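As promised in the previous annual report, we have extended the structural survey to additional targets. Below is the entry for Xanthine dehydrogenase family protein subunit M.
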Amino acid sequence: MAATDWRWPQTAAEAADLLAQPGHQAVAGGTTVLDLARLGHVSGPAMVDLSRLPREEIRVQEGALLLDAGLSNTAVARAPLVQQRFPALSEAILSGASGQIRNAATLGGNLLQALRCAYFRDPSWPCNRRDAGSGCPAIEAPLPGDAILGITAHCRAAHPSDMAVALLALDARLHGLVGARRFEMPLADLYPLPSPDAGLTALPRGALVTAISLPLTTARSGYEKLRGRASYEFAAASVAAVLESDRGRITRAAIAFGGIATTPWRTPAAEALLLGQGYDARATDDFLDLAFATAAPVEATAHKLPLARGALHHLLQRLTK
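The corresponding structure token record, generated without further manual editing, is:
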């Protein structure tokens, strides 16, 4: 069912007021929302088009890099400050989609995009994430792109965003409005595990994300993505790493995985196993064993575990040279 009304707010405050009203849905770049509408997904009675909101330039503020949520993916990926200080984010964005889609898609929209599971996208199939309690065909008939971590009886679809994986490793925070109230939250809290009571994100109802902040760091970072083809393909497995070192020894490590879990996946308790040395294959394997201790691959998804392990080994070797 298509929306019967479109609204074009001119300010963030006006957009937040509209989104607080029942049935109002935000549209940023439209690369997901409009796709789903064409496929027959039900939308609310009103679409709130955010394309006319003023956008702030990328800037440093209070010890953090501040990124306007309305900036295009291309603008963020190509920004010198991002390329120089946060290469993992630039690499993740550039690996995420075609140039045309990156030009249209926004930073905030990417983080809030819907699932890419075929069962979710086709309304002729039941799907718990689209209609809670209707069932999950992937439980009995898993797809090769499904997750091996964070699976529940409610859903096993892999989270689709490359950008979110890099931002998780970079300790990003979200900023926004709920009506007239400002809110802030760690990106690590944005994506709940699938459950009957959980939405696709943990954002407050009617929230408008206005910015994402990244604490400034001198750490090296990078992103590695493995996929079935080189252009416009979702990750079979991906990894973002952020490393600080002293005299060739790792003093801090943040590792996040994509394509293999129902959320961007990070295991902070395992990261300590990488400290005190440069790249070490055994320590990396110990980290992976702990990080993937709850993995539950099936025949259709068994390829993901070795892909993710190999991606991390390759990335750590690159970053510690």
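The chain has a mean pLDDT of 94. The first helix runs from residue 12 to 19. These points will be discussed at the next consortium meeting with the crystallography subgroup.
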